[in-house]
Amino acid sequence: MIAFFLRRSLLVAAVCGASAAVLSPPCAQAATTTLRGSVTYRERMALPPSVLDVRLLDTSLADAKAEVLARTSLRTRRQVPIPFTLKFNRDLLTAGHTYALDATIFVDGHPWFVTTTQTPMPEDNKANIQMVLSRATATATTTAGATAGATATPAGTWKAERIGDAPVAEGGKPPLLNIAADGTVSGFSGCNRVRGKATIDGAALTFGPLMTTRMACLPQAMKTEQLFLKNMEATRGWHLAPTGDVLALVDAQDKPTVLFRRQSAEAHESAPAPTATPR
């Protein structure tokens, strides 16, 4: 699947000089590939202002969480089909691996349409990729990795992608939260470790006082943490995408407080540790 990109990468390396200390602009840009396509759905319904999120995944390991190689997120008022472009560094591709794209359409922070079947990455980057999404529901009857017929819950390990209506600031470590089956909560709030208790009653979800360690971090990390903890405190409910990999926490007015994406259990075990000095 990736032979086309690998052959081109070798050619670029030969022309530009793979061992050069500084690449000229043409050579520096040569490693970037742009995928183009559009996203649609079959339902005959109008789409309110929304956010389209498209990701390129390494799907080689069937039993492991797919690695995200690139993503793009755009606000739009368009109706479907919604065009997108996704740029990525093809030097990240590995011979023998398989790659695919998935997409989600969010409205007011809630997943409205999601990928149920991933789209293989085309060998030709000039191909026009067509992705057809399925309607998401407020709650799912199964979660990723769960047996069919199991009741959906917000339990699991989750990485924050959006806080309120804004994406988590780049450059820092995003909040990571583990919700155990008994409601025990632990993780990382953007600057400090956090722990506490969640009360889950059907579609209702609240968090008790969340306790954190007391480390001082860079201003952006502390700002992310303060906003994250504030929005967690305001949470009153939850929605889970049918695929089980997107969790939206909402307030009493059903407005999004935090949007998470599911992570492996190992991600919780390796949650970032505070490295700054005590306050």
From TrEMBL:
The signal peptide stretch is 1-30
One Pfam family named in its UniProt record: META
- What domain of life? Bacteria
Record's keyword terms, sorted: Signal
Q: Which InterPro entries match?
A: DUF306_Meta_HslJ, HslJ-like_sf, Lipoprotein_YbaY-like, Pilotin
Q: Where is the DUF306 domain?
A: 154-261
The protein here is known as DUF306 domain-containing protein
Q: List the source organism.
A: Acetobacter orleanensis
